[in-house]
């Protein structure tokens, strides 16, 4: 396996079981057809990886689920030079966790008594209707669940996401000791980047909406400093107004560029690239770039927020939803949940390929746009394999995000990797990793009213992507690579892009 570095190249985002069965199977893929990836973000592989929230409700955050492997398998991946990212779920644990079960059994006598957040900790003097309904939550209902203790008493516990996901009191010593133990386990296994999941909700402050407040930023600084003690880089996961992304980006090593996907979809749908060009002017430099992820395609990241204008207007965001629903024959609309107090869903639940009409040329253009941006590119496994919406899985689970969380068998993976859309994306990964131009300077400019040019130049080496989103049927584009001899190679179709790897 070739040497890889955490900040270089392209990373894969995947569930272990849904792509490769287990950690050994994933290592075989990384050593084989996916060898060009420099890193992999292992979505929750703890006990259990298949809980009510697909692993984001850990019963035991310190154990690898034995159905996937063990910590030695994680260390083996890291030992091959692969830059590993793992999730630190800072907001909550499972109601089935040993710590929560001990608290229910022993009450204040439990060592975990202060680890969890109760209603009265945030509102010691009680709270009126206005204070409670001001709390921001991406789901319907209120973020509290009553739990009964062994002695018959009941407490109202914070459950921001699901009743079985118990929020931590991140101001308490037991919670910090718990988070430190998880970080230590990650570092010992060779993890290089820790993703702080749902950090925007981690601190609850009376008198605010309890989302990404000043107290949250202070917590982010503290947990980042702790991660750095273990030699771990920090990536934050926040779906929020772009100004909030800019603010938190200054405190950590990496922040997601969640605004790029809806801005790109706006360009595909309208031919207008001005909003995208504006974002390139102001986006954080330490961005992890994505198209789709395990959580769908973000909405609020590019939209307005109350009195704060967004990169797109509410009407423009609504139009993106409408176009997605049209091209997916209503699938995205059925899978995307809208909280009762909002005009639009929190995100588009669909694969990126599906919202581009299942057109390989469109997906390859979108992927090329992503891979040409500065930052750390991350490809989601379903997008890489050109997956469509898994409506059967959604129907079985009732979870809208499952449309983009398909379970692939080995034969399905082999067939998908042989398609033009997957081969072209893997060639783009190789180009971003191996072409000398990407070690140079990035440039971008408008080309006419509906075109954009992205380029990288390093001495005599140049990589250039030109796209015109104003075409009536589909965008037109050309990818060109110039080598050290001045020879230029170009491609305008997925099949042609798949051959460009040979010029490296």
Low-pLDDT residue intervals, each spanning 5 or more residues: 1-7
**First CA to last CA: what distance?**
18 Å
Q: What is the CATH class of the largest domain?
A: Alpha Beta
Name the CATH homologous superfamily of the largest domain. Glycosidases
Structure summary, number of beta strands: 21
β-strand percent reads 15-25%
Specify the CATH architecture of the largest domain. Alpha-Beta Barrel
Order of strands, main sheet, comes to: 1-2-5-10-11-12-13-16
Query: CATH topology of the largest domain, what is it called?
Result: TIM Barrel
User: What is the overall number of helices?
Assistant: 20
Task: Please identify the structural class as seen in this structure.
Answer: alpha/beta
**Rg from C-alpha positions?**
23 Å
Summarize model confidence as the mean pLDDT.
94
The biggest beta sheet reads: 8 strands, parallel, barrel
């Amino acid at each position: 396996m070739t040497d890889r570095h955490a900040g270089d190249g392209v990373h894969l985002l995947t569930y272990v079981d849904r792509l490769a069965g287990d950690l050994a199977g994933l290592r075989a893929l990384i050593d084989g057809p996916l060898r060009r990836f420099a890193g992999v973000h292992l979505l929750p592989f703890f006990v259990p990886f298949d809980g009510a929230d697909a692993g984001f409700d850990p019963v035991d955050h310190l154990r690898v689920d034995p159905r996937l492997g063990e910590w030695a398998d994680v260390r083996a991946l890291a030992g091959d030079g692969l830059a590993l990212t793992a999730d630190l779920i800072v907001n909550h644990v499972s109601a089935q966790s040993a710590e929560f079960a001990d608290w229910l059994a022993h009450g204040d006598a439990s060592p975990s008594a202060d680890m969890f957040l109760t209603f009265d900790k945030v509102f010691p003097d009680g709270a009126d209707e206005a204070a409670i309904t001001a709390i921001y939550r991406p789901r319907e209902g209120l973020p509290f669940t009553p739990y009964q203790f062994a002695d018959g008493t009941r407490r109202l516990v914070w459950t921001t996401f699901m009743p079985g996901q118990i929020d931590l009191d991140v101001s308490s010593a037991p919670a910090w000791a718990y988070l430190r133990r998880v970080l230590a386990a990650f570092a010992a296994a060779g993890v290089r980047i820790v993703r702080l999941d749902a950090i925007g909700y981690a601190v609850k402050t009376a008198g605010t909406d309890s989302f990404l407040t000043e107290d949250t930023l202070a917590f982010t600084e503290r947990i980042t400093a702790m991660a750095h003690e273990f030699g771990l880089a920090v990536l934050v996961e926040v779906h929020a107004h772009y100004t909030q992304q800019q603010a938190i980006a200054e405190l950590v090593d990496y922040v997601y560029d969640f605004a790029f996907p809806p801005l790109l979809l706006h360009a595909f749908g309208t031919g207008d690239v001005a909003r995208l060009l504006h974002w390139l002017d102001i986006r954080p430099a330490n961005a992890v770039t994505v198209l789709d992820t395990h959580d769908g395609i973000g909405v609020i990241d590019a939209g307005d927020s109350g009195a704060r204008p967004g990169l797109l207007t509410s009407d423009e965001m609504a139009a993106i939803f409408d176009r997605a629903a049209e091209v997916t024959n209503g699938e995205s609309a059925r899978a995307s949940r809208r909280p009762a107090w909002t005009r639009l869903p929190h995100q588009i639940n669909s694969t990126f390929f599906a919202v581009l009409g299942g057109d390989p040329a469109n997906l390859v253009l979108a992927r090329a746009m992503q891979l040409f941006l500065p930052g750390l590119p991350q490809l989601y496994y379903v997008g890489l394999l050109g997956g469509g919406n898994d409506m059967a899985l959604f129907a079985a689970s009732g979870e809208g995000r499952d449309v983009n969380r398909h379970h692939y068998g080995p034969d399905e993976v082999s067939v998908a990797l042989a398609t033009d859309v997957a081969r072209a994306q893997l060639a783009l990964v190789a180009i971003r990793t191996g072409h000398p131009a990407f070690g140079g300077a990035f440039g971008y400019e408008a080309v006419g009213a509906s075109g954009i040019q992205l380029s990288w130049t390093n001495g005599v080496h140049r990589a250039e992507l030109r796209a015109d989103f104003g075409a009536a049927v589909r965008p037109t584009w050309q990818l060109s690579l110039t080598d050290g001899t001045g020879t230029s190679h170009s491609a305008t179709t997925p099949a042609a892009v798949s051959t460009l790897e040979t010029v490296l």
